[in-house]
Amino acid sequence: MRGALELAGVGMVFAGRRGPVTALEQIDLTVPRGQLLAIVGASGSGKSTLLSLVAGLQRPSSGVLTLDGVEITGPGPDRGCVVQSGAVYPWRTVERNVGFGLELLRRLPRAERAERVAWYLAETGLSHLAHALPKQLSGGQRQRVAIARALACEPDVLLLDEPFGALDVQTKEDMQLLVRRIWADTGKTVLIVTHDVEEAIFLGQRVVVLASDPGRVASDVTVDLPDDRDLTVKRTPKFIELRATIEDLVRTYHQKHVAAR
After folding, report:
1. In this protein, which residues make up the domain named ABC transporter (predicted)?
2. Residue-wise pLDDT tens digits, 151-170
3. Against a cut of 0.85, is the pTM above it?
4. How confident is the model at residue 257 (pLDDT cuts 50, 70, 90)?
5. What is the 3 state secondary structure string of the chain?
6. pLDDT mean over 201-224
Protein backbone atom coordinates (compact mmCIF):
# COMPACT_ATOMS: atom_id res chain seq x y z
CA MET A 1 0.00 0.00 0.00
CA ARG A 2 1.20 3.49 -0.89
CA GLY A 3 0.47 6.90 0.62
CA ALA A 4 3.29 7.96 2.97
CA LEU A 5 3.64 11.77 3.08
CA GLU A 6 6.66 13.75 4.23
CA LEU A 7 6.88 17.55 4.58
CA ALA A 8 10.36 18.86 5.36
CA GLY A 9 11.00 22.54 6.08
CA VAL A 10 8.00 23.60 4.01
CA GLY A 11 7.31 27.32 3.79
CA MET A 12 4.98 29.42 1.66
CA VAL A 13 5.33 33.14 0.97
CA PHE A 14 2.84 35.17 -1.06
CA ALA A 15 3.24 38.63 -2.56
CA GLY A 16 1.06 41.13 -0.66
CA ARG A 17 0.20 44.77 -1.19
CA ARG A 18 2.60 45.79 1.57
CA GLY A 19 5.25 43.22 0.83
CA PRO A 20 5.73 39.47 1.21
CA VAL A 21 3.26 37.56 3.41
CA THR A 22 4.47 34.33 5.04
CA ALA A 23 1.56 31.88 5.12
CA LEU A 24 3.54 28.83 6.27
CA GLU A 25 6.92 28.54 7.95
CA GLN A 26 9.15 25.52 8.54
CA ILE A 27 6.45 22.82 8.42
CA ASP A 28 7.93 19.43 9.30
CA LEU A 29 5.32 16.69 9.20
CA THR A 30 5.31 12.94 8.60
CA VAL A 31 2.09 11.11 7.75
CA PRO A 32 2.46 7.32 7.59
CA ARG A 33 0.56 5.48 4.89
CA GLY A 34 -2.98 4.62 5.90
CA GLN A 35 -3.22 7.26 8.63
CA LEU A 36 -6.18 9.62 9.08
CA LEU A 37 -4.77 13.02 10.04
CA ALA A 38 -6.85 16.09 10.91
CA ILE A 39 -5.45 19.63 10.77
CA VAL A 40 -7.03 22.46 12.77
CA GLY A 41 -6.15 26.07 13.47
CA ALA A 42 -7.57 29.56 13.62
CA SER A 43 -8.06 31.75 10.58
CA GLY A 44 -4.69 32.68 9.10
CA SER A 45 -2.94 29.49 10.16
CA GLY A 46 -2.51 28.30 6.56
CA LYS A 47 -4.59 25.12 6.79
CA SER A 48 -5.95 25.27 3.25
CA THR A 49 -2.61 26.47 1.88
CA LEU A 50 -0.96 23.40 3.37
CA LEU A 51 -3.50 21.08 1.76
CA SER A 52 -3.10 22.90 -1.56
CA LEU A 53 0.66 22.23 -1.44
CA VAL A 54 0.08 18.53 -0.78
CA ALA A 55 -2.38 18.46 -3.68
CA GLY A 56 0.31 19.99 -5.90
CA LEU A 57 -1.86 22.99 -6.80
CA GLN A 58 0.91 25.31 -5.58
CA ARG A 59 4.66 24.94 -5.19
CA PRO A 60 6.24 25.76 -1.80
CA SER A 61 8.55 28.74 -1.46
CA SER A 62 10.92 26.56 0.55
CA GLY A 63 11.23 22.96 1.65
CA VAL A 64 10.15 19.71 0.02
CA LEU A 65 6.97 17.61 0.02
CA THR A 66 7.22 13.95 -0.97
CA LEU A 67 4.75 11.13 -1.46
CA ASP A 68 6.34 7.70 -1.05
CA GLY A 69 9.75 9.33 -1.43
CA VAL A 70 8.91 11.10 -4.70
CA GLU A 71 8.81 14.92 -4.68
CA ILE A 72 5.38 16.48 -5.24
CA THR A 73 5.74 18.95 -8.11
CA GLY A 74 2.13 19.23 -9.29
CA PRO A 75 -1.30 17.58 -9.21
CA GLY A 76 -1.50 13.86 -9.83
CA PRO A 77 -3.89 10.89 -9.78
CA ASP A 78 -2.21 9.63 -6.61
CA ARG A 79 -4.03 12.42 -4.70
CA GLY A 80 -7.79 13.02 -4.72
CA CYS A 81 -9.18 16.29 -3.36
CA VAL A 82 -12.64 17.28 -2.08
CA VAL A 83 -13.46 20.89 -1.17
CA GLN A 84 -16.30 22.51 0.77
CA SER A 85 -18.38 23.39 -2.27
CA GLY A 86 -18.59 19.76 -3.36
CA ALA A 87 -18.29 20.87 -7.00
CA VAL A 88 -20.00 18.45 -9.37
CA TYR A 89 -20.82 18.72 -13.06
CA PRO A 90 -24.50 19.76 -13.24
CA TRP A 91 -25.08 18.24 -16.69
CA ARG A 92 -23.78 14.80 -15.70
CA THR A 93 -25.69 12.17 -13.77
CA VAL A 94 -24.33 10.96 -10.44
CA GLU A 95 -22.92 7.87 -12.13
CA ARG A 96 -21.17 9.90 -14.85
CA ASN A 97 -19.84 12.40 -12.30
CA VAL A 98 -18.26 9.60 -10.30
CA GLY A 99 -16.78 8.04 -13.43
CA PHE A 100 -15.44 11.28 -14.91
CA GLY A 101 -11.80 10.76 -13.95
CA LEU A 102 -11.88 7.16 -15.13
CA GLU A 103 -12.85 8.27 -18.64
CA LEU A 104 -9.34 9.71 -18.92
CA LEU A 105 -7.81 6.32 -18.12
CA ARG A 106 -8.13 4.86 -21.60
CA ARG A 107 -6.11 1.80 -20.64
CA LEU A 108 -8.84 0.80 -18.17
CA PRO A 109 -11.43 -1.48 -19.85
CA ARG A 110 -14.97 -0.10 -19.90
CA ALA A 111 -16.31 -3.01 -17.89
CA GLU A 112 -13.72 -2.40 -15.14
CA ARG A 113 -14.57 1.31 -15.09
CA ALA A 114 -18.26 0.50 -14.68
CA GLU A 115 -17.49 -2.00 -11.90
CA ARG A 116 -15.36 0.51 -10.03
CA VAL A 117 -18.00 3.26 -10.31
CA ALA A 118 -20.67 0.86 -9.07
CA TRP A 119 -18.51 -0.06 -6.05
CA TYR A 120 -17.96 3.55 -4.99
CA LEU A 121 -21.61 4.41 -5.56
CA ALA A 122 -22.48 1.59 -3.16
CA GLU A 123 -19.73 2.58 -0.71
CA THR A 124 -21.07 6.14 -0.52
CA GLY A 125 -24.75 5.14 -0.45
CA LEU A 126 -25.53 6.57 -3.88
CA SER A 127 -26.49 3.48 -5.89
CA HIS A 128 -30.17 4.41 -5.90
CA LEU A 129 -29.29 7.88 -7.26
CA ALA A 130 -26.98 6.73 -10.07
CA HIS A 131 -29.12 8.30 -12.80
CA ALA A 132 -30.09 11.47 -10.91
CA LEU A 133 -28.76 14.92 -11.82
CA PRO A 134 -27.01 17.10 -9.19
CA LYS A 135 -29.96 19.53 -9.06
CA GLN A 136 -32.04 16.67 -7.64
CA LEU A 137 -29.60 16.06 -4.77
CA SER A 138 -29.21 17.51 -1.28
CA GLY A 139 -25.98 19.18 -0.18
CA GLY A 140 -24.87 16.05 1.63
CA GLN A 141 -25.58 13.88 -1.39
CA ARG A 142 -23.53 16.19 -3.62
CA GLN A 143 -20.62 15.88 -1.18
CA ARG A 144 -20.95 12.09 -1.39
CA VAL A 145 -20.70 12.38 -5.17
CA ALA A 146 -17.56 14.52 -4.84
CA ILE A 147 -15.98 12.00 -2.45
CA ALA A 148 -16.91 9.04 -4.64
CA ARG A 149 -15.48 10.81 -7.71
CA ALA A 150 -12.21 11.55 -5.88
CA LEU A 151 -11.92 7.92 -4.78
CA ALA A 152 -12.92 6.28 -8.06
CA CYS A 153 -9.46 6.91 -9.53
CA GLU A 154 -8.13 5.09 -6.44
CA PRO A 155 -5.62 7.71 -5.24
CA ASP A 156 -3.15 6.86 -2.52
CA VAL A 157 -4.15 9.96 -0.52
CA LEU A 158 -7.57 11.57 -0.01
CA LEU A 159 -7.47 15.31 0.79
CA LEU A 160 -10.53 16.93 2.37
CA ASP A 161 -10.61 20.75 2.65
CA GLU A 162 -13.39 21.87 5.04
CA PRO A 163 -15.67 19.39 3.23
CA PHE A 164 -18.66 19.57 5.58
CA GLY A 165 -18.59 23.19 6.70
CA ALA A 166 -21.77 24.13 4.82
CA LEU A 167 -23.85 21.17 6.00
CA ASP A 168 -26.36 20.97 8.84
CA VAL A 169 -25.36 19.10 11.99
CA GLN A 170 -27.18 15.85 11.20
CA THR A 171 -25.85 15.68 7.64
CA LYS A 172 -22.35 16.59 8.84
CA GLU A 173 -22.35 13.69 11.30
CA ASP A 174 -23.58 11.33 8.59
CA MET A 175 -20.67 12.44 6.41
CA GLN A 176 -18.20 12.00 9.26
CA LEU A 177 -19.36 8.40 9.65
CA LEU A 178 -19.02 7.94 5.89
CA VAL A 179 -15.41 9.15 5.89
CA ARG A 180 -14.48 6.84 8.73
CA ARG A 181 -16.11 3.88 6.98
CA ILE A 182 -14.37 4.63 3.69
CA TRP A 183 -11.06 4.99 5.51
CA ALA A 184 -11.59 1.64 7.27
CA ASP A 185 -12.67 -0.11 4.05
CA THR A 186 -9.95 1.26 1.75
CA GLY A 187 -6.96 1.89 4.01
CA LYS A 188 -6.31 5.23 2.28
CA THR A 189 -4.14 7.93 3.78
CA VAL A 190 -6.57 10.76 4.59
CA LEU A 191 -5.81 14.41 5.41
CA ILE A 192 -8.71 16.60 6.48
CA VAL A 193 -8.55 20.33 7.15
CA THR A 194 -11.35 21.60 9.40
CA HIS A 195 -12.13 24.47 11.76
CA ASP A 196 -14.35 22.10 13.79
CA VAL A 197 -12.31 20.63 16.66
CA GLU A 198 -14.98 18.06 17.49
CA GLU A 199 -14.94 16.86 13.88
CA ALA A 200 -11.15 16.67 13.88
CA ILE A 201 -11.10 14.49 17.00
CA PHE A 202 -13.89 12.21 15.82
CA LEU A 203 -12.25 11.62 12.44
CA GLY A 204 -8.55 11.73 13.19
CA GLN A 205 -6.00 9.36 14.59
CA ARG A 206 -3.90 12.50 15.06
CA VAL A 207 -4.81 16.17 15.26
CA VAL A 208 -2.19 18.72 14.23
CA VAL A 209 -2.79 22.24 15.55
CA LEU A 210 -1.39 25.09 13.47
CA ALA A 211 -0.43 28.44 14.97
CA SER A 212 -1.14 31.58 12.96
CA ASP A 213 0.82 34.20 11.05
CA PRO A 214 2.89 32.48 9.97
CA GLY A 215 1.28 29.05 9.98
CA ARG A 216 3.42 26.50 11.78
CA VAL A 217 2.95 23.27 13.69
CA ALA A 218 2.16 24.23 17.28
CA SER A 219 1.06 20.85 18.60
CA ASP A 220 0.63 17.27 17.41
CA VAL A 221 -1.97 15.37 19.45
CA THR A 222 -2.54 11.61 19.32
CA VAL A 223 -6.26 10.75 19.47
CA ASP A 224 -6.38 7.85 21.90
CA LEU A 225 -9.82 6.57 20.91
CA PRO A 226 -10.91 3.27 19.30
CA ASP A 227 -10.58 3.10 15.51
CA ASP A 228 -14.07 1.60 15.27
CA ARG A 229 -15.64 4.59 17.03
CA ASP A 230 -19.21 5.74 16.45
CA LEU A 231 -21.01 8.97 17.36
CA THR A 232 -21.52 7.91 20.99
CA VAL A 233 -17.78 8.38 21.55
CA LYS A 234 -18.40 12.15 21.48
CA ARG A 235 -20.09 11.86 24.90
CA THR A 236 -17.25 9.98 26.59
CA PRO A 237 -14.98 11.67 29.16
CA LYS A 238 -11.88 11.00 27.04
CA PHE A 239 -13.40 12.72 24.00
CA ILE A 240 -14.57 15.69 26.04
CA GLU A 241 -11.11 16.01 27.58
CA LEU A 242 -9.42 15.92 24.16
CA ARG A 243 -11.83 18.53 22.80
CA ALA A 244 -11.10 20.89 25.70
CA THR A 245 -7.33 20.39 25.30
CA ILE A 246 -7.30 21.08 21.57
CA GLU A 247 -9.76 23.98 21.77
CA ASP A 248 -7.50 25.55 24.41
CA LEU A 249 -4.49 25.08 22.13
CA VAL A 250 -6.26 26.70 19.17
CA ARG A 251 -7.48 29.57 21.35
CA THR A 252 -4.07 30.12 22.95
CA TYR A 253 -2.21 30.34 19.66
CA HIS A 254 -4.92 32.56 18.18
CA GLN A 255 -4.69 34.94 21.16
CA LYS A 256 -0.91 35.09 20.77
CA HIS A 257 -1.43 35.95 17.12
CA VAL A 258 -3.91 38.74 17.95
CA ALA A 259 -1.69 40.15 20.70
CA ALA A 260 1.29 40.31 18.37
CA ARG A 261 -0.54 42.34 15.70
Report:
1. 5-237
2. 988 899 999 999 888 788 99
3. yes
4. low
5. CCCCEEEEEEEEEEEECCEEEEEEEEEEEEECCCCEEEEEECCCCCHHHHHHHHHCCCCCCEEEEEECCEECCCCCCCEEEEECCCCCCCCCCHHHHHCCHHHHCCCCCHHHHHHHHHHHHHHCCCHHHCCCCHHHCCHHHHHHHHHHHHHHCCCCEEEEECCCCCCCHHHHHHHHHHHHHHHHHHCCEEEEECCCHHHHHHHCCEEEEEECCCEEEEEEEECCCCCCCCHHHHHCHHHHHHHHHHHHHHHHHHHHHHHHC
6. 94
